[in-house]
Amino acid sequence: MVTPLPLSIFIIAHNEADRIGATIAAVRELSDDIVVVDSGSTDGTRELAASLGARVIERAWPGYGPQKRFAEEQCRHVWMLNLDADEVVPPELAAEIRRLFAAGEPPHPAYAIGIAEVFPGETRPHRLAYTLWPVRLYRRDRGRYSPSPVHDRVDLEPGATTGRLRAVIHHFSVRSLGDQLDKLNRYSDQQADDLEARGVQIPTWRLFVELPGNFLKAYVGRRHWVRGAYGFLTAMNYAISRHLRVAKHYERRIGGRGRRGGR
Predict the structure, then answer these.
(1) For strand 31-38 and strand 5-13, is the pairing parallel, antiparallel, or unpaired?
(2) Ramachandran region, residue 68 (left: φ > 0; alpha: ψ -120 to 50; beta: rest)
(3) In the chain, at which end, N or C, are there fewer CB atoms within 10 A of the end residue's CB?
């Protein structure tokens, strides 16, 4: 039997029954404390997570940062690994995390882990896939998730050093182009809310450059071009979502409400 690490793993979820099973299965042997905080799933996410050994807690959605901070507080260990419900830890990353703890306390209080997208039709990230490097493995007494409802990041205390792991998380973020655009559209609502709450004003000229500029950012800068036509389409979705963020912000500034229905 494999001995679990002194590590909690937490996941926030909403209607992820088609993806969260692979997420939990990949890390079941790493930890004896897997926490799933669910915000009202109706597709069996909670039941599936519980059947795989996760401790499931229900909580209404308050935004990304507040939900992840709540999840941190439910964890039993001081070391924690955060995963999204569409992310999978491959065997090489699980082995690297084990090696990190093999000699006792890891040398750094926080570690950045690469996150590389796996597009439909792929089984692992393209070798040239763009990779983000956020802190995902950290000590809770040296860093916490930002309370921002839209900015998904760990804020470390001054002086906390950050290491970097070599293997990367596999991010199965795109179910379909339509689902991706729906998700990005909802996120642009939350971003417009956040801009308004913070009193930030984006200049009007940005309306005219946001879409083409962000298409180039995704297609060229984030190397969506390596996925051919599908990469072109996902880069367009990203650009549209960034345009919508500014457009909704502008609409509110001139007196239109432009607010989403629902919660």
Answers:
(1) parallel
(2) alpha
(3) N
Q: Model confidence at 184, in pLDDT bands (50, 70, 90)? A: confident
**Cβ atoms 150, 63 nearer than 8 A:** yes
Q: What is the pTM of this model?
A: 0.88
Distance CA(202)–CA(102), nearest Å, equals: 49
92 burial type by CB count under 10 A (0-12 exposed, 13-18 middle, 19+ buried):
exposed
Domain 7-171 has CATH 1.10.260.40: no
Q: Which is it for strands 79-84 and 135-139: parallel, antiparallel or unpaired?
A: antiparallel
In the chain, where the domains are located: 7-171, 177-261
Q: How many CB atoms lie within 10 A of CB 36?
A: 28
Q: Per the structure block, which two tokens stand in for 168? A: 């990367």
